[in-house]
Each structure stands twice: as structure tokens, then as C-alpha cells.
């Protein structure tokens, strides 16, 4: 397993290199630049030229890219134009909020997936099964920002149960502030994992060893808890891991809707201000998080199913 982890981390290097190059070139293709946006209407041609020189935007593209790679190698990820601070400092300040939101939403998604998938599979074709499939089909068809706005109206304005913004100071306050955004993400995740787990449960229920367990007199609780659910969960791990990777990028929208001080909202701010170093640094951080989540998913899948060999 250690060799497998090292190999996967080594594969991260060319991936990150490609991401840095694509991000660098796409940013330079966008209209506008940080110097013009920072100076605004007060900046004349001379002031803008001096600002570009101070920011290094007057250098050839290849030299700007090499400086960007040097910033990555130093660990600072460059210096934010707007905040006038190293990008890594800003990332470390905002990263806990994003990781908390991803972890909290994943826990809520799993808490919804397991009982609802079991309930739906055990009542296949019945009213409960149809209601669960219909409800989560509607959820997955709704954009996350629209669902977030509906939750704000329902549970923060009409029923003032949760705040509409902020992160909280202690654990209870943090749970209170992030329940709505985490629930929005969890519903989108559960809409996929419930279908996957339900199909896996139905497949396992038709297996020979389940039939044998029933013939030996195993009760429903033991049958589902010992024989069915552990084997059905294996296929759902990949779906959960893949969707969690998507959630990393989805936090950009959710954090903006709920004004959470995470990497997503910082990313939106950096785009509007054309803060090249901050955009590039955050892109690298998001890429690393996605790769690490995919690696953790592969390891969890191998641990859950001994038949899977990491080679």
C-alpha cells in the first residue's frame, strides 16, 4: 500500500504541471488585468504601466510562468496582488472552513444514504420506493445555488432557525452556521449515492449466500447488517469519493451563497479582482485536494474489498 501511495503521489507531478500551464495561459487570455482593476478610473497609461512593471506583468509570458513555478516550489504560491500577502497564508486561513463544509456534508450524505437506500430497496416498487426516487430526482435536477436560496428563504427568513452567513467560533456555533450549506451539498450527494446503494443492495439480495443465510433462519436485521449492507457498500464508495471530489469545486457556489469564509468564496473574489497569483494558487490547492480525495477513495475501496489488489 505504501508503494501504491508513493506512485500515486508521483503521478500528481505531471498533472499539477499541466494544470499550472493551463491556468496560467487561460488567465492571460481573459480581458482585463490586475493593474487596470487596482488603479481603476484614476489610473492613466503611465500609472498602469508602472503598476504592471511592479507586478511583473510586463515580462514575457515564459518568464512570468517560470516565476509562477518558482513561487510554487518555494511553498508561498506567490503573493496576492489585492491582499498583499503570500497566497499560502490566505489558503491556510480559509482552508479549515472548506474542509469542515466538505466533511460535514459527507457525514450528512452518508447518514441519509444508508437508511433511505435500505428502505427503498426493501420496498422495491412500492410507494416509499417511488417517493424516495422522485424526491431525489427533483433534488439532483435543481442547481445547487437555487436550492441554497430556497433553504435560506425557508429556514432562515420564514423560519429563522439557521443563520444565513458566517462560520461560527466554537463547535456548536459552527454546526449551527454550516448546517444549511452542508445540507444543500449533502442532498446533491445523497441523490447519487442512494441510487447506487439501492441497486447494489438489490443485486446482493439475489446472491446465493444471502439465500443460504435466509435458509438458515437469519433475521432481517442480521441479514441486512451482516450479509447485505457490507457487500453493497463497496460499490458505493467509488460514487461517494467521485462526488466528494466534485464537492470541492462545488463549494465555490455554496460558500458564495451562504457567505462562508472558505476557499470557494476567496476564489470568486480573486476572479473578479483578476488577482492572478491568488487564482493560480487556489487552482493548485483545489487540484491537490481532488487528487488526494481520489487517492483516499481508492485506498478505502481496496480496504473494503480484499479482492482488490492495489497493483
From TrEMBL:
It is found in: Cell membrane. GO terms for cellular component: plasma membrane. It is a multi-pass membrane protein. Keywords: Cell membrane, Membrane, Transmembrane, Transmembrane helix, Transport. This is ABC transporter permease. It comes from Bosea spartocytisi. SUPFAM superfamilies: MetI-like. Its main location: membrane. Residues 95-297 form the ABC transmembrane type-1 domain. InterPro entries: BPD_transp_1_N, MetI-like, MetI-like_sf. GO terms for biological process: transmembrane transport. The chain crosses the membrane at residues 12-30, 97-122, 134-159, 179-197, 232-258, 278-304. Gene3D superfamilies: MetI-like (1.10.3720.10). The keyword Cell membrane applies. PROSITE patterns: ABC_TM1, PROKAR_LIPOPROTEIN. Belongs to the binding-protein-dependent transport system permease family. It comes from the Bacteria.
Amino acid at each position: 500500500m505504501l508503494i501504491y501511495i508513493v506512485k500515486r503521489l508521483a503521478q500528481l507531478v505531471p498533472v499539477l504541471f499541466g494544470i499550472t500551464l493551463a491556468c496560467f495561459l487561460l488567465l492571460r487570455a481573459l480581458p482585463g488585468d490586475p493593474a487596470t482593476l487596482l488603479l481603476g478610473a484614476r489610473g492613466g497609461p503611465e500609472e498602469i504601466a508602472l503598476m504592471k512593471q511592479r507586478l511583473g506583468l510586463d515580462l514575457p509570458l515564459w518568464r512570468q510562468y517560470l516565476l509562477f513555478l518558482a513561487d510554487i516550489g518555494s511553498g508561498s504560491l506567490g503573493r496576492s496582488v489585492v491582499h498583499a500577502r503570500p497566497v499560502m497564508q490566505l489558503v491556510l486561513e480559509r482552508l479549515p472552513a472548506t474542509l469542515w463544509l466538505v466533511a460535514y456534508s459527507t457525514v450528512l450524505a452518508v447518514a441519509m444514504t444508508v437508511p433511505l437506500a435500505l428502505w427503498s430497496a426493501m420496498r422495491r416498487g412500492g410507494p416509499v420506493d417511488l417517493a424516495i426516487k422522485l424526491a431525489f430526482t427533483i433534488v439532483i435536477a435543481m442547481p445547487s445555488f437555487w436550492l441554497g436560496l430556497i433553504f435560506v428563504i425557508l429556514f432562515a427568513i420564514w423560519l429563522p432557525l439557521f443563520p444565513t452567513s458566517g462560520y461560527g467560533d466554537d463547535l456548536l456555533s459552527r454546526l449551527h452556521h454550516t448546517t444549511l450549506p452542508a445540507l444543500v451539498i449533502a442532498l446533491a450527494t445523497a441523490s447519487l449515492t442512494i441510487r447506487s446503494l439501492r441497486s447494489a443492495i438489490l443485486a446482493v439480495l439475489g446472491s446465493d449466500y444471502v439465500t443460504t443465510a435466509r435458509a438458515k433462519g437469519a433475521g432481517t436485521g442480521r441479514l441486512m447488517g451482516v450479509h447485505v449492507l457490507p457487500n453493497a457498500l463497496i460499490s458505493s464508495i467509488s460514487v461517494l469519493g467521485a462526488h466528494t471530489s466534485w464537492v470541492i469545486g462545488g463549494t465555490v457556489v455554496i460558500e458564495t451563497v451562504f457567505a462562508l469564509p472558505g476557499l470557494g468564496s476567496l476564489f470568486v473574489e480573486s476572479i473578479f479582482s483578476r488577482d492572478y497569483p491568488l487564482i493560480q494558487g487556489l487552482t493548485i490547492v483545489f487540484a491537490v485536494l481532488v487528487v488526494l480525495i481520489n487517492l483516499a477513495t481508492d485506498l478505502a475501496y481496496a480496504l473494503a474489498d480484499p479482492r482488490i489488489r492495489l497493483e
